[in-house]
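User: YqgF/RNase H-like domain-containing protein. Structure?
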Amino acid sequence: MQTMINEDVNGFLSRLPEKGRLLGLDLGAKTIGLALSDVSRQIATPLETLKRTKFAEDAHKLTKLYDKHSVIGIVLGFPVNM
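Assistant: Predicted structure:
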């Protein structure tokens, strides 16, 4: 897994293959909401909600989901109204 951080959507998309699933994360204080896109990245559907625990445990769960669903990128929710 290669790590790159992009705040620019076009920069992010230019580094991805044409097809592949994205994993969306909605980070909350107590839970992490997850959504998974289809391979063509036209639609995302809710996947599950993880109860937050220790960082290492949460990272392990996310890595397993990343591998299980052949994810090529992660999109973090940006809290606009906080």
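The chain has a mean pLDDT of 90. The first strand starts at residue 21 and ends at 27.
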